[in-house]
Amino acid sequence: MLVEVINTGSELLLGNTLNTHLTFLGQELFPFGLRVARQVTVPDGDAIRVALVESLARADIVIVTGGLGPTTDDITREITAGLLGLPLIEDPDVWSFIQARFSRRGLEMTPRNRRQAQVPQGATVLANPNGTAPGLYLRHVANAAARHLFLLPGPPRELQPMFHDKVAPILKSLLPVGPSVDCRRWLVAGMGESKVESVVGADLLAIPGLELGYCARPGAVEVRAIGVPEALAAAEAVMLAKLPTQIAGEGGAPIEEIIVHRLASAGKKLATAESCTGGLLANKITNVPGASGVFLQGFVTYANDAKSRALGVPAALIAQHGAVSEPVARAMADGALRESGADFALATTGIAGPGGGTPEKPVGTVFIALAIRDGETRVEKHSYPTDRATFKELTAQAALNLLRVAL
To answer: Are residues 109 and 146 in the same domain?
Structure first.
């Protein structure tokens, strides 16, 4: 069945409000075997009518978000009723619910709140315990084809529970039972999109019934496969055979989450020593629930004397090789390991730019070191000649991947 989504609200197009509805709906619809074929965002006003006319002409399921509130710009309900030739009738149960909600919260009602009890004749009311705007479901027949129209409130805290509790059961009743289709994702670290495709693309495309996609991430590529279980099992076999060490994880989990879980499973601790990444490594790690069980300490030693004072990097070493060098990166990681008592320590030192580069060490040069207790310290050199924010992100991802491979 063809699904289209219409997101309404001028605030979405002005950039004042982030539109999260498509992400949520796309993820929730997929288990039903449904895919959003088209999504459009329109401002409040007659553009809603135009979008509805277009979607109802071709889509089996149309989901509209927003415009069900009490104010003058909330006209989705009225436009839909007019378009379908249905009168608006006050629903006594909805009106009683609205009154009770205001009473419980000690709020004063305005005459416009009563508009939210207006329901197109024949519509199924989708109760909204988290707000005053009920959702609506309408079955409309046009040119001998059934159209299923869902009007949902705009606030995510209202829309999302309503979808789970009210919309999902209706969708389940509409859909035929068919073969189970699922989606599997692999995060491939340290390789570019075209390189990943050149390694696994031909073999994956040879799997019957497999839908394949690639999505570039900072320092990684997400490979996405959609198909029946047999096709996905074949795809996984290809991925593991062709990229045995490059696969950072499955299901789209970020590398830092994988690292925290692996450190926790092994009972190991981590410390970081950062110069050019300015604490981004520590930030990524500590964003993961459970990081407190594995992350001991982070050093942000941006200045040269800070590297000496906090990490014990000899000033003479910096003077001889420069702060951005393999010996200094190695000394930073070793110092972080020693000072923290951790089992692993990551260090970064590089030239983020736009200035500071030399012919020998151009902007984008970075050294990443990993010190391992009772093991050998490893150092990698990378080049990321890009803007500062992207440079820091790519460096952090490369550092985390170095640790992931070691784990």
So the answer is: yes
